[in-house]
TrEMBL record, chain A:
Entry's transmembrane regions: 20-45, 52-70, 76-94, 115-134, 146-168
Protein name in the entry: Rod shape-determining protein MreD
Keywords, alphabetical: Membrane, Transmembrane, Transmembrane helix
TrEMBL record, chain B:
InterPro entries: Cell/Rod_1, Cell/Rod_MreC_2, MreC, MreC_beta-barrel_core
Disordered as annotated region, ranges: 320-345
Family: Belongs to the MreC family.
One Pfam family it belongs to: MreC
Name under which the protein is recorded: Cell shape-determining protein MreC
The species this protein was found in: Hymenobacter ginsengisoli
Amino acid sequence: MSVLGVLVRQLLRFGLYAGMQVFIVGQLSLFGLGWCFLYLGFVLFLPLGTPIVLQLLLGFGMGLAMDISYDTGGLHAAAAVLLAYLRPWVLRLLTPRDGYDAQDTVNVHQMGWQWFMVYLLLLVSLHHVAYFFLELGSFQHPLLTLARVGVSILFTSTALLIVQLLFFPVRRTRS
Amino acid sequence: MRNLIAFLLRFQGVMLFVLLEVVSLFLFITNSSYQRAAFFNSANAYAGAVLARRTQIADYFRLDELNRQLLADNAKLRQQLYPPDFSRREADSLPVGRDTLGHLIYRHLRPDPSQALAAATAPGLGQNAKPKKPNALARPDTLLLGGAKLATHDADYPLVAARVLNNSLRAVDNYLTLNVGTADGVQPGLGVLSAAGVVGQVKSASAHYATVFSLLHSKMAIAAKIKRDGTFGSVKWPGEDYSHALLDYIPRQNRLVRGDSVVTSGYNAVFPEGVFIGTVESFVKEPDKNFWTVHLRLGVDFSRLTYVYVVHNRPRTERDSLETALTAPEPAPVKPAKQPTRPTR
């Protein structure tokens, strides 16, 4: 795929994730506690070989867009940058026995359920813990915040899993 | 030099990570301060347009609820319009007041000063026609917001009706976005009310959108008083439930009654005096505190906030300039900008 094609594709993904988040998913809440961070899918499902600098910048851009929509200053951006920074570490941790193939992507059909769920839950949990405790600015209501973190992890992971099952190709594409 | 470049390349990820984190945390921490360009929040023109469109779409799905809210508001206003028959009946005895020198004033014997002035300046017009005509200026239309009457037609201090575009409930610091901005006369620092009571305070405004600190914000404190006995306190949101707040600084020796109304005291010059905030739901005396811990049920249901009003508190500029003049070294000679054309009530 050409550079321009990649660029257009990623821009479209950015717009789709941000739009879905602001228009639809951000309005929902689970049990009055949890919130869905669907936009994390943009960072989580980037190609495996994305340079770290690019990942960080994309995470920051996405986070800032959310901050502007939800008036949180830089809270989403801080947590999303942390997520983008931790992603290569988690990927390295989960390397299959014979390394990643060139065409490997973050895809539940290709990488298997076990690999995908560990990857998703680990990164989403780290992000949510960072997000909710940063938002609190202190450890005043630890139980309530932990409940929020737990319910949000459930919500976000389920939503991202549904996105994977619906929109990601079952067969490997030749690219 | 080559080593330096190699070093920078090797640690580019870490360094960019630290840089971006510092930038975002800086933005996050300074978010609650007032003096901030309206770009990095939802009053930004692009974000505002997106949120306005979302509201437009979402409104179709809750037209029923919106209509019911407006009907309820209408019913309340109609009740104001048609008071019971005996409410305007005058007492047998004359109401007696005192003027600034302590002399008694018999209001019924003396004409209203503004009408007397008008009659004096225009003697040609018959004396008989003047006092009969209801003076539209002296009796401005009022709107009942949270139990306080506010004038609607007042060129100097407009009451701006606004639609809530975005509203968060579950964050630690919640904000609202409104579809009015500086073009409609909204400025940072103004109060925001709804028909049911206090909502918040404007944080920043762009040309057509404004961001508002919700009452549900960890740094928001509203000067309040208990309506029954006038005890002053301060309303804060503890950050758990959007229908409840705390009333602080009520001394332990005071008696409290469940169901008491708590209204704004008008001390912080943001809200007019007497606007409803909530009712006392429960109170406990904690052993290590000098004050009651009072739980309020908020009058405003933040989960279905639709139409709000931005208010200008009248004496605000005057009061602020007075309070700053106390510390100013050499006050400039102040002359009244404009003779008041009508008595203020």
